[in-house]
Input
Amino acid sequence: MKFIPKKFKYKKMQKGRIKNLLQKNVNKYKKTVFGFYGIVALEKGEVTPNQIESVRKVLVKEIKKFGKIWVRIYSNLIRTTKPAEVRMGKGKGSFDHWSCQIRAGQVLFEISNVKTGLGFYLLKKASKKLSIQTKIVRYS
Output
């Protein structure tokens, strides 16, 4: 299960900026909606589809049929690069990889129907697969 779009409008996109949320609004995004436990980003950054898939595999392997997993992020941005030692100009580089922009305070993954100790252990184990700092939150 790859987390990349099947169809997309433009072959190459502009990079854009990750807007950081104001400190007063961050708490609004730190709440889980579907599950009982969740992984929340503490900093802004980018996550690749391979990282999303590896986190999903860690969670599925332990939870099996009993719990439910929600993946709240999706890689929908194309990243391009130019080859090494190429002169300036001559247009935009070719496709390199997909990525997903993450804001600080955004909920990335959620799980439910899992015991308390197991839930924290699984999310801690899964959050090590991501390239950004994260925190585990509980539904309140």
